[in-house]
Amino acid sequence: MYGFSTRLTGNLEEIEQQLTEALKAEGFGILTEIDVQATLKNKLGIERAPYRILGACNPPLAHRALEADPDIGLLLPCNVVIREEPDGSICVAFMDPQAVLGLVQGEAVVELADEVRTRLLRVREQLGGTLTG
């Protein structure tokens, strides 16, 4: 498994705001936001439900990761997906840092992955909903 998620009911924009605030409380900021729905519409003319990929970063943890392995930037930032499901619910899915950073060898990276996962799980719990993964 490479991620964990929660399903919520409500407005996607409001849930995204709650998500951003919960991430901020855990020391994460949003570095990037990719609006997949808009990109597919503009580039391919494909209509799809709202789907956004947020690149979340906690600078002190990112610094520790880069100190442990300079190439780890290939695996950063922590991606969080927020999307509308066919039934109208909103899914917020988190990359599991243990799965992704497990590709890197070293005790420092394993400890860091555990810490990041714990923080992201707390974000998911703050959002509530139906937890999966």
Describe this structure in words.
By secondary structure, the chain is α+β, with helices and mostly antiparallel strands. It has one domain: TATA-Binding Protein (2-Layer Sandwich), CATH 3.30.310.70. 44% of the residues lie in helices and 27% in strands. Strands 2-3-4-5-1-6 form a six-stranded antiparallel sheet. α3 (59-68) runs antiparallel to α5 (107-127). The radius of gyration is 15 Å and the shape is globular. It starts with a strand and ends with a strand.
Brief sketch in words of this structure:
The chain has 133 residues and is α+β, with helices and mostly antiparallel strands. Helix content is 44%, strand content 27%.
Query: Strand count, sense and closure of the main sheet?
Result: 6 strands, antiparallel
C-alpha-based Rg, rounded: 15 Å
Order of helices and strands: EHEHEHEEHHE
What is the number of domains? 1
Look at the structure and give the mean pLDDT: 95
Q: What is the count of β-strands? A: 6
Can you tell me the residue ranges where pLDDT is under 50 for at least 5 consecutive residues? none
CATH architecture annotation name: 2-Layer Sandwich
Q: What structural class is derived from the secondary structure elements?
A: alpha+beta
The CATH class is identified as: Alpha Beta
Give the helix proportion (percent range).
Answer: 40-55%
Fill in the keyword field for this structure:
single chain, 133 residues, alpha+beta, TATA-Binding Protein, 5 helices, 44% helix, globular
